[in-house]
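User: quick one, fold this
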Amino acid sequence: MTEQLAIPALRSNDLAEVPFGAQRPTWALDEEASDYVIKLASVKSELSVEQQTSVGLMARFGITSTGDWLNSSHSCSLHITTNGPGAWSLWQALWRSIKSADVWLTPAQQPPIKLLICDMDSTLIPTESLDELAAHVGIGEQVARITSQAMNGELDFVEALNQRVGLLKGLDYTVVEDCVAQTEFNRGALELIQHARNSGVTTVLVSGGFTAFAEHVGRALGCERVVANELEVSNGALTGKVLEPIVTKDTKLTVLKQLCEELGILPEQCCTIGDGANDIPMLQAAGTGIAYRAKTVVLAATPFHLTHAPLNALKPMLSWS
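Assistant:
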């Protein structure tokens, strides 16, 4: 006898409780029936339980599939037919019910990605580079608290940046070089960038971090362009200042717009990935803006999350050139 999957009943106010319910894409307003795709991604290689949950919720919403699950490493997908509001409501219910995998729901026909823009700190690499420098002078926890507040949108980014860098005044630049040499990458980062490059996608790293780290990371991963802040150095030591112009959330958005114009593409053909509040404008401007291991305020800004799966899970999740 097959065990019945327990799916929590949806209360009338469940969907309203989803924190990003207001961030509704334009397709969610389309009343005509169309083809959509449920996409699941996880660190797990097998997602049968999550697939059962999805099918159970589809039945509850009266939505049918148009084929079988397509499985690949760390991800799977299922084509369905419904209208925009139905797809949006189903996605919210899936998000509430599936806690062990990332859940996306998109129109079946998506423009191929032509431009990939990634944040660096806590996105391509697992750490905040500024926090790493602060740890070398014994103020790691103090600086990390300020970083956390800035990334959650609780502090002005530029103000927080200047405050933290000011605390590093006098730090020997060799410490920066040592930290750069020890930089590691998040799982799947190299494979993602290489796949994008092999698909003819322009790859860019845009960071509110520092060029010493960003140029190293960009070279190692294969990013074609790097935009980051530069620490002022005098007599082999940090002065406690950042050289102008400072890379901010507006800079990141400007880079996206300029590159779209330069490449002759639409923002819908761009994928952006970031984790902090200063990434939100570029995440919302792109056709696919992905919140990676993100702060709550960022999760509320986009329906594309990568909380469980590694970065290389995006290979089958996105449509590439």
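User: anything notable?
Assistant: The mean pLDDT is 90.
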